[in-house]
Design brief:
Layout: H1 2-7, H2 14-36, H3 39-60, H4 69-87, H5 100-124, H6 130-154, H7 162-177, H8 189-206, H9 212-239, H10 241-246
């Protein structure tokens, strides 16, 4: 009996992780509220977004299985990204010397750095999972959307920039109607590179020293690359649609 207890792996309930994730989210909310003077709207938006993460974890992660350090890192990153998205509508317009824009860009940079940390932890601890990969992917998409909103609100570019953040969600919506779009895509260096390029370009565009013309040109390039990448993936899936149906 004692040997069985000693050999049983130590696990932490996912609810514990969700609670400390909520605590970090609230902390970031108060920091953002101090910078942008909009506590209630940011708190409401952050609460709605974090509730979505809680629902996903409860619905798709086994209660008896440890959440893992890779997923915990993604959750920490998610708490920051959620507040960045919630605060994006309150970004001060360009030209502005407000340090809040710099803080926003630094927050996005930290989220980008953590994106590499969770993947490395998953490989080191041999804890890679479909849930973890999807969790990480959705946080990338949410960060990009938040940065798009921040760029629009800062006045560095027009509403067309939102296409960078909405393209992923349009693909998901199309996949709900067209089953062949749900086929797993192979690993792609091209896809990862363009994703990072999007985030970096958006972060640079938010910075006060970046002129609107430079920001718009760089973002237009990112949009063209993203559209090409999505078209490449959709074509790959379309060519294999019948094989997918017969499997």
């Amino acid at each position: 009996m004692d040997l069985e207890r000693q050999s049983k792996p130590f696990t932490i309930s996912p609810w514990v992780d969700l609670l400390w994730g909520a605590a970090f989210t609230i902390l970031w909310v108060f920091v953002a509220a101090r910078l942008y003077s909009s506590l209630l709207p940011i708190l409401v938006l952050a609460t709605l977004l974090y509730s979505g993460i809680c629902f996903a974890v409860v619905a798709h992660w086994p209660k008896t299985k440890d959440f893992g350090w890779a997923n915990r890192t993604t959750l920490l990153r998610a708490s920051l990204i959620i507040v960045l998205v919630a605060a994006a509508p309150f970004i001060p317009a360009f030209p502005s010397t407000d340090h809040a824009l710099w803080v926003y860009a630094v927050g996005a940079l930290i989220a980008l750095i953590l994106d590499g940390v969770d993947g490395k932890l998953a490989r080191i601890t041999h804890s890679s999972s479909r849930f973890g990969a999807r969790f990480d992917m959705e946080m990338d998409a949410l960060l990009i959307l938040g940065l798009c909103i921040a760029v629009v609100m800062s006045g560095k570019a027009g509403f067309w920039v939102l296409a960078l953040g909405l393209m992923r969600y349009l693909f998901v919506a199309a996949a709900s109607a067209l089953d062949w779009l749900n086929r797993p895509l192979p690993e792609s260096f091209r896809r990862k590179t363009i994703c990072v390029w999007q985030i970096v370009t958006l972060m640079v565009a938010v910075l006060p020293p970046t002129p609107p013309m430079v920001a718009s040109l760089a973002l237009a390039t990112a949009l063209l690359l993203l559209a090409w990448s999505f078209m490449t993936d959709v074509y790959w899936l379309y060519e294999r649609r019948f094989h997918h149906q017969t499997v």
